[in-house]
Amino acid sequence: MNTDETSNSSSESYLEDDYRRVVTGEVCSRFLPGSLIEIIREVRPGIPFQHVLFDFDGTLSLIREGWPQVMVPMMMEEIQATGTSESPEEIYRHCHDFVMRLNGKQTIYQMIQLTEELRARGGRPGEPVKYKQKYHDRLMKKIKHRRDSLRSGEARPEDYLVPGAYGMLSAIQKMGLPMYLASGTDERYVKEEAELLGLIPYFADHIYGAIDDYRSYSKKMVIERILRENNVDGSVLLGFGDGYVEIENIKSSGGIAVAVASDEATRSGKPDAWKRDRLIGVGADLVIPDFQEKEALLAYLFGRG
């Protein structure tokens, strides 16, 4: 998806809304027998899914696990430089809150918020892309050993993948369904890291990520293009993600959304409670902790259970 093609979408397609909970109150769910696959909303048996969308970081890749511990301190430094009287603890809490509130959007949105925070404290911020690059430079230092170990063969791709990811992707590929990767991380990094993890054969040229001109890209645009170019409606779209943006976009298109509430730090095999609650709140149909129970999940989704 190049910039020109993406720009042909609706002028509002680039917008990524703030998190807005649409499911409130007590959630009545059930688990597939003997599994941690939680069904929030029953999926009609036999839906003829034709296209499958995946988010990248946290849904498949764990290379960037721990990124908030890079972004938040960087933002704290910028805010402290304004001369604010706030304590470091206050600044940390505030930065952490808005960073996680905006998690799931393109990185640039968190940097746009940072510039607003700086301006509100009398600072004269630079362009958001400047802060995004500063963050990326620091993050790349943090994860350099992970990327290098994958490149050298010292680490296996499975060491930095959500458990069961290969098996899930292989099973869908065997069904003959095209898969798409859409990320809020910059596209060049997504493609580099997808290659390091051996994911290119599953997605081929259907790998999309953020660009500096954020108005020319969004996950919503990717979905709109999939449906438009294949002349199908959203009911044949199946999507997986650990961020609210893709879950929200999949649901608004009419598709079925599987929330991947992955425990990135410890890969415990149990759902992350914060992710689970957040993704149920925007309408996820199912919640899984990872892909280790793919047989039961696919049997349910494709009406073979």
Give a written overview of the molecule.
The protein is α/β, with parallel strands linked by helices and 305 residues long. It folds into 2 domains: 3-62 and 161-301, HAD superfamily/HAD-like (Rossmann fold, 3-Layer(aba) Sandwich), CATH 3.40.50; 68-152, no CATH class. The chain has 12 helices and 8 strands. An 8-stranded mixed β-sheet has the order 1-2-8-7-6-3-4-5, sandwiched between helices. The chain is globular.
Radius of gyration: 19 Å
Number of strands: 8
List low-confidence stretches: 1-11
Largest sheet: 8 strands, mixed
Keywords:
12 helices, 305 residues, 8-stranded mixed beta sheet, globular, alpha/beta, 11% strand, Rossmann fold, disordered N terminus, 8 strands, 2 domains
Q: What's the gist of this structure?
A:
With 305 residues, the chain is of the alpha/beta class.
Helix-strand blueprint:
Elements: H1 3-7, E1 30-31, E2 38-39, E3 51-54, H2 68-80, H3 88-101, H4 107-120, H5 128-152, H6 165-174, E4 179-186, H7 187-196, H8 200-203, E5 207-210, H9 219-229, E6 237-241, H10 244-253, E7 256-260, H11 273-281, E8 286-288, H12 294-301
Parallel strand pairs: 3-4, 3-6, 4-5, 6-7, 7-8
Antiparallel strand pairs: 1-2, 2-8
Helix pairs in contact: 2-3, 4-5, 9-10
